[in-house]
Amino acid sequence: MVTGTAKGLTLTEADRQGRKLYVIRSKATAISELKADATLSDAQITLYEAGVPNVVIVAPRTRVDAKSKDVVMWGGLSARAPSQGASFRVDRLTWNAGTKLFRGEGHVTYRNGPATFWADHMTGSTPVKKVHLGESVRFRIEPTRK
Amino acid sequence: MQRRRMGMRVVAGGLFLAACVAMAAPKAKRVRAQEPVKLGTFSGYAKGGLDIVPGDKLTIELHGGVAITSPSSNIAGDEMVVTMAKKGKDLETAAATGNVKIVTRQPGDRVITSTSDKGVLNNVEHQAVLSGNVLVRVDDPQNPMVITGAQSATIDLTSKRISVRPGPGGQVHFEGTVPAPAPKKGK
């Protein structure tokens, strides 16, 4: 059984073909083999699609559950999906490495090009093809500066 | 100022006959698309949430009672699909369905309020296209009018032109004030 802390840890999980599912880099990590989880501080999480980086998330606190494959991030996090031209902020985000589904809750601010959206929660899957924001959503679309 | 007060019913024959109601002052220059309307910043809400579909054209599907507002136009409805040009570009179209209401404000305290089953605000062609149970009310200090019974109507956002297509019965009902024709020169 392994229990302890580490600094500068990198966690990587890959699929059966050896392609990366995600890479998590953190400044400080507490690992518990008994709970089969790891709790990380100031982590950068990169989610991959077919081995290619798809979403990059920076989260103050992160817990990785090896059994459920849940990656739970909280403490106010920011993310960007460069290929989509999108970025977002949310209080708490859960992504499952098995189902690829994510759900964010609390003070969602989602930006895509000139559009900014504010919502209570967001759901979707990776790679990001559609993002649902709910329930009562406000938004603003700024004109392009010529 | 020469004006005629009119309360009239326009009966247009033929399903494909478009009754064009040009409400500009006779001498007014028609502004075309070379001078696009500055719609400014859009803001809005979707009570039932929305879906964002990234792609070549960003698509936003709004649900459950929605509205978007700009300084010059409002569009509201039960559902709406907004498309935007490739990332970083402007809003292109806003297509609403169900209890659609479009309000456009034009120079000279002129406000056009329309209700319909479907409505598309087109920011590229600078027009609003309405269809199904169309009602158009023009609040204009000089030429107020109401148009009902049309199958569809197109409101040009750059000029004061409203084009109306009659309903299945071939009728469009029109009440209002239109400017008198300008007297010909030399007479």
Protein traits:
heterodimer; A: 146 residues; mainly beta; ten-stranded antiparallel sheet; 0% helix; B: 187 residues; 14-stranded antiparallel sheet
Description:
The complex is a heterodimer of chains A (146) and B (187). With 146 residues, chain A is mainly β. Chain A has strands spanning 3-14, 20-32, 37-49, 52-65, 70-81, 86-96, 101-112, 115-125, 131-134, 137-141. Helices cover 0% and strands 73% of the residues of chain A. In chain A, β8 and β9 form a beta hairpin. The radius of gyration of chain A is 16 Å and the shape is globular. Chain B has strands at residues 3-11, 19-22, 42-46, 50-53, 58-62, 66-69, 73-77, 79-84, 91-106, 110-122, 127-139, 145-156, 161-166, 171-179. In chain B, strands 1, 2, 3, 4, 5, 6, 7, 8, 9, 10, 11, 12, 13 and 14 form a 14-stranded antiparallel sheet that branches. The chains are: A mainly beta (146), B mainly beta (187). The interface between A and B is medium-sized, with 27 and 29 residues.
